[in-house]
Amino acid sequence: MTEFVPPEFDVPLGLQTSQFVLEPLGPRHNEPDYAAWTSSMEHIRATPGYPDGSWPREMTLEENLKDLQRHARDFETRKGFTYTVLEPAGRGVIGCVYIYPVAEDEYDACALSWVRASHAHLDSPLWRTVSEWLESDWPFTRVTYAPRA
């Protein structure tokens, strides 16, 4: 199996704009992450890139913690990269960005993102910023990332 990113690639530990901050998702984000997505399940399901309805699904806070631990392990082992999206000032969780391998040969990676319903106005700016970030700072040439209007 080939590496998702080259061994010499320094994986970005975050991204900051005036509208949001991205940092690696981990167990410390459990409660605010859980509150963010459970308050916005229908909104997330309507977000481009989530067409099959398999997520979000009902989970307990403990199940969410295990999911965040899995994402943190993926980050550490460079198998995939999940970032929490935070408000710049209060650092409240407002969404997530996922960057993972894709089985389709025509793409190097798949990116997905969501924002909570209360921050829906940030969905397109997040998509635009992450798209530009993937192009400028990541080693991928072809990324699939559901476009926004």
| Number of E-state strands | 6
Number of contiguous helices: 4
Label the overall shape.
globular
- Main beta sheet: strand number and arrangement? 6 strands, mixed
The whole-number mean of residue pLDDT values reads 94
Secondary-structure element order, as H and E?
A: EEHHHEEEHE
Summing up helix and strand content along with how strands pair, one would put the structural category as: alpha+beta
Strands ordered across the widest β-sheet: 1-2-3-4-5-6
State the helical fraction: 25-40%
Distance between the termini: 36 Å
Unreliable parts: none
Strand content: 15-25%
Radius of gyration: 15 Å
Description:
30% of the residues lie in helices and 20% in strands. It is of the alpha+beta class. A 6-stranded mixed β-sheet has the order 1-2-3-4-5-6, with helices on both faces. A hairpin with a 6-residue loop joins strand 3 (81-86) and strand 4 (93-100). Helix 1 crosses helix 3 (61-76). The chain starts with 14 loop residues before the first strand and ends with a strand.
